[in-house]
TrEMBL record, chain A:
Originating organism: Chlamydomonas reinhardtii (Chlamydomonas smithii)
Disordered: region residues: 416-451
UniProt-listed GO biological process terms: tRNA modification
A GO cellular-component term linked to this record: cytoplasm
InterPro entries for this protein: TGT, TGT-like_sf, tRNA_ribo_trans-like
Catalytic activity from the UniProt record: guanosine(34) in tRNA + queuine = queuosine(34) in tRNA + guanine
PANTHER family: QUEUINE TRNA-RIBOSYLTRANSFERASE CATALYTIC SUBUNIT 1
Protein name as it appears in the record: Queuine tRNA-ribosyltransferase catalytic subunit 1
Automatic annotation (TrEMBL), chain B:
Subunit structure: Heterodimer of a catalytic subunit and an accessory subunit.
Protein name: Queuine tRNA-ribosyltransferase accessory subunit 2
One Pfam family recorded for the sequence: TGT
Protein species of origin: Chlamydomonas reinhardtii
GO BP, one annotated term: tRNA modification
């Protein structure tokens, strides 16, 4: 099952009650797969836009279909606050409520609490937090999280895990969190009432400690879940630490099972998506493409385009000449420059639309490249466009070496010192910080952040 | 392109109401019609062209304000682009009417206008705009129809100010038409763009402007190309405040002109009693002194006359053919879905008991501003309502989504809520206009009007939530809009409505069965 050979018969796959995963092509560590979910067969590697409160920032579900989105996210914490999971259940689950016929994934709600609420605290029971309604002490247990997610009815539901920011300097806390995450997965499994309709994914913890990560992988894999996520990343760790954790969790022999989907949480920078895919990850999510759009930043093959920049006032080119999306076919940078952050919703939606078109085209191209056995060439071309001077960051070079992708002729110059410094920076936690970081677009955004 | 030359023709009339066809160089508009409202050329929430194409009955035309193109972008930028507003704004196949104001705000009067210029407040601050700058911008926009420059005044203006407005507007009309004629002349290729500007741009950013250049290159075979306003229809601005006699006098000063395709009745929706409007419209039209055949060939556009369906109907009854649709922007921003019925029941006769009022209005919460023409989706009454916004409506929103979902989206301040409401409300207004056209064509407009009036015991006068008008004025009075950022629905004027549960805050009583967090 854990074969990495390219022989069709030997390609990894798995068959869970509500999820059939089948790798259809591999090249090096990268894989292109089909993941049959109750509502849709998703193609991976895939990016999943975040629809925090039951909509993806102004886009209609018809547009999300047009944009080739296979799975979208909902945030349990927000949805439980309003409209409430019982109401959603009454309205036919999230799918029925928002009228989305394809795949959905909900998070556990725990991360949202830890990141959004100041007084959240994790105990063995669960996550205690102060009610945003009346300030009273509230508790989210693994059982509660699963019950809510069972009512929301997404195709994939996430276990409540004990998340510790990777930047925490407390080895004992990581040790505790790793083992607690395992204890909680057992509680999640017992609480899960719809295992034939919804897939519970476990989340690997362990911070930056390879020993703890390995323990977490081993303990969670023993539970034989339909899929696994890599958690605790995109929270401010260095890019070097980030890719090494992903590489460990996606390792062909000692990592997560090759026959099951691997989801790296909170990843939305295109470069990160490419690196993680090269290392063998399958699923990604982030608010980055949609949030940065509302600040007037468009994703393009060269990196990002800051539409507010005065240079675009007379620039009559599309956002991205290689993009065939509705926005790039019809609009110029000059038009969007004037209106994108000026309170005209339609303009913000246009850039959001393009950014999702960009992430979906990116993953589609990666899948095709893997299936056509030209993925290393594709990666080289991608990096050449983004780093025309050859100053590919060191961490990308190291990660590609691990992935077995030769960057000769691409990473020619020294890594740009400025770029390297920027990339090592901590992730943006607030919208304001995100705005500042938008131009760099190569650092992490906090995982599972809601919009 | 149509074989028929641009112009207007009346197909049928019923009283002063008429239905007709306005042929423009882009396409034709069936009248009476509302034109899609845009701000800085963009629909508020509907993305173009995909979501505009989803509107049914189809969008007839798009209205934009010339003043919003005085800066960012300005005429020079648009000229450099070269293909006009319809392409720059991706407004699809719809004819574009460039008017002198935004019907949802009042941009004038912060500083006095002069004999030569009006003062206008837009997103980038105040500008003095005279006929030359105005027509330069109109030419750069290349609209299918345009309103000439008007010295706008509010309804409370006194006779002396009205007379000044009339004098200036009439003088500017002649200047605007002369300039329009110049902008219509065939011109040499190189005159299409300002050479110095073009060169500078090319130096600055290689590759920029390629689309405009390509468009120009496509026409290079001709020694001369049509001017940007060739075939564009001029609508003469008619002013006159809220005094019928002054309106008549102002219209007389304009009169019958063969070089205009029609008239724009200006200055309405600026504080006058809506009940007074039909008389003001009539006064303007009478003052023109058009012979019947001339009147039948001139289209009448009025801005600011639609504060609700009744007002639209009264404007049509007074002889208006084209109206703005700022009303949709206002109801959408307030979280309303239009629900008034579009057609009388089969065999309805005057004196019949009123038919069921707006389908969505059953149990309408009057405190929330719902009435028998619209429902407020902020109301918690729709929390669990699986029905469409309006049963029987085939619009994009009603075909796909429930009231409960729209209610949730508003509560959650999600932009999609307004997208869906704008889609429905735009479709509904287009359906209303279609029903009115049918009624006029079939000679039963008066009956239709009587039926529509019978739907309510007392006519609805002002359905614009008072806060909205204030908010619009505030927006217009300063560059606040510029700094508003994309707050999406969070930008909602807090004073516009007082939705239940404090507009999605956590405050107040929470219906049972909401959050299920475990209390410890
Ligand atoms: Zn695009
Ligand atoms: Zn509808």
């Amino acid at each position: 099952m854990a074969s990495t050979s390219s022989g069709a018969a030997a390609l990894p796959s798995s068959d869970s009650p509500a999820l059939k995963f089948k790798v259809v092509a591999t090249q090096g560590r990268a894989r292109s797969s089909r993941m049959a979910l109750p509502h849709y067969t998703a193609h991976t590697p895939m990016f999943m836009p975040v629809g925090t409160q039951g909509s993806v920032k102004g886009l209609t579900t018809a547009q999300l279909v047009e944009l080739d989105c296979h799975v979208i996210l909902g945030n349990t914490y927000h949805l439980e606050n309003r409209p409430g999971s019982e109401l959603v259940a009454e309205m036919g689950g999230l799918h029925g409520f928002i009228n989305w016929q394809r795949g959905m994934l909900t998070d556990s709600g725990g991360f949202q609490m830890v990141s959004l609420l100041h007084l959240a605290e994790i105990t063995e029971q669960g996550v205690t937090f102060q009610s945003p309604i009346d300030g009273s002490a509230m508790l989210l247990t693994p059982e509660q999280s699963i019950a809510i997610q069972n009512r929301l009815g997404a195709d994939i539901i996430m276990a409540l895990d004990d998340v510790v920011p990777t930047t925490t300097n407390d080895p004992a806390r990581f040790e505790e969190a790793t083992h607690r995450t395992t204890r909680w997965i057992d509680r999640c499994i017992s609480a899960h009432s719809r295992p034939t309709e919804q897939n519970l994914f476990a989340i690997v913890q362990g911070g930056l400690d390879t020993r703890l990560r390995q323990i977490s992988i081993q303990q969670l894999v023993e539970r034989d879940l339909p899929g696994y996520a890599v958690g605790g990343l995109a929270g401010g760790e260095s890019k070097d630490d980030f890719w090494r954790v992903v590489a460990q969790c996606t390792h062909p022999h000692t990592g997560l099972p090759p026959g099951k989907p691997r989801y790296v949480m909170g990843i939305g920078y295109p470069l990160d998506i490419v690196v993680c895919s090269a290392l063998g990850a399958d699923m990604f999510d982030s608010v980055y493409p949609t949030r940065t759009a509302r600040f007037g930043v468009a994703l393009v093959p060269e990196g990002v385009l800051k539409l507010k920049n005065a240079a675009h006032a007379h620039d009559f080119r599309p956002l991205d000449s290689s993009c065939g999306c509705m926005v790039c076919k019809n609009y110029t940078r000059a038009y969007l420059h004037n209106v994108v952050t000026r309170g005209i919703s339609s303009a913000a939606i246009l850039v959001t639309y393009h950014n999702i078109a960009y992430t979906q085209a990116l993953t589609r191209r990666m899948r095709a490249a893997i299936e056509e056995q030209r993925f290393p060439e594709w990666v080289r071309e991608y990096l050449r466009t983004m780093f025309p001077a050859g100053d590919v960051p060191g961490w990308v070079r190291d990660a590609m070496a691990e992935a077995g992708i030769d960057l000769a002729g691409v990473a020619t110059d020294q890594p740009a010192p400025g770029a390297a410094a920027a990339e090592q920076k901590v992730g943006a936690k607030s919208a304001r910080a995100e705005k500042r970081a938008a131009g760099r677009a190569r650092g992490p955004v906090a995982a599972m952040e809601a919009e | 392109m149509s074989q028929t030359p641009p112009g207007f023709s009346v197909k049928a009339r019923d009283g002063n109401a008429r239905c007709g066809t306005l042929v423009t160089r882009t396409g034709s508009i069936d009248t009476p019609s509302v034109l899609l409202y845009t701000r800085r050329g963009g629909p508020l929430s509907l993305t173009s062209p995909d979501m505009l194409a989803a509107v049914t009955p189809p969008v007839q035309g798009v209205q934009l304000s010339v003043m919003q193109f005085m800066e960012n972008p300005d005429a020079a930028t648009l000229r450099q682009y070269g293909r006009g507003a319809q392409s720059f704004l991706a407004l699809g196949p719809y004819p574009v009417l460039a008017s002198n104001r935004d019907p949802t705000m009042y941009e004038f009067g912060t500083r006095p206008s002069s004999e030569k210029e009006v003062h206008v407040c837009i997103h980038s601050g105040g500008h003095m705009v005279g006929p030359a700058r105005y027509m330069d911008t109109v030419a750069a926009l290349q609209p299918d129809l345009f309103v000439t420059l008007c010295d706008e005044i509010t309804a409370d203006s006194r006779s002396k100010r009205i007379a000044t407005s009339a004098r200036r507007t009439a003088a500017w009309l002649s200047t605007c038409l002369e300039l329009a004629a110049q902008h219509s002349q065939p011109r040499q290729q190189q005159e299409q763009q300002e050479p110095a500007e073009q060169q500078k741009q090319q130096q600055e950013e290689a590759g920029a402007g390629t689309q405009g250049a390509a468009a120009a290159a496509g026409q290079e075979g001709d020694a001369a190309v049509a001017g940007p306003l060739a075939g564009s229809l001029a609508l003469a601005a008619l002013t006159g405040g809220a005094l019928p006699a002054e309106r008549t006098r102002a219209a007389k000063a304009v009169g019958d002109r063969s070089d205009v395709a029609g008239y724009a009745i200006c200055g309405l929706g600026t504080g006058e009693d809506p009940a007074q409007r039909p008389a003001l419209i009539a006064a303007s039209l009478e003052g023109l002194g058009l012979a019947p055949e001339a009147a039948a060939a001139r289209v009448v556009f009025a801005s600011g006359v639609v504060g609700g369906p009744d007002e639209l109907l009264e404007a049509v009854a007074a002889g208006v053919d084209l109206m703005d649709c700022g009303f949709v922007a206002q109801v959408t921003t307030g979280g309303y879905a239009l629900t008034f019925p579009l057609r009388p029941p089969q065999g309805w006769q005057p004196g019949d008991a009123p038919s069921a009022a707006g389908a969505g209005a059953g149990g309408a919460d009057v405190a929330l501003g719902s009435d028998d023409t619209k429902m407020n989706l902020w109301s918690t009454a729709y929390r669990l309502d699986k029905g469409p916004l309006l049963p029987g409506c085939g619009c994009f929103a009603c075909a796909r989504h429930s009231r409960a979902y729209v209610h949730h989206l508003l509560n959650a301040h999600e932009m999609l809520g307004e997208v869906l409401l704008e889609a429905h409300n735009t479709s509904h207004m287009n359906g209303f206009c279609q029903a009115i056209r049918e009624a006029i064509a079939e000679g039963r407009f008066e009956q239709y009007r009587a039926w529509f009036r019978s739907l309510r015991s007392s006519p609805l006068v002002d359905m614009t939530p008072p806060g909205l008008a204030q908010a619009a004025k505030r927006r217009a009075s300063g560059p606040a809009g510029e700094d508003a950022g994309v707050k999406g629905a969070e930008d909602r004027p807090a004073d516009a409505e007082a939705p239940a549960e404090g507009a999605g805050s956590f405050g107040g009583k929470r219906p049972a069965g909401r959050a299920k967090w475990v209390r410890v």
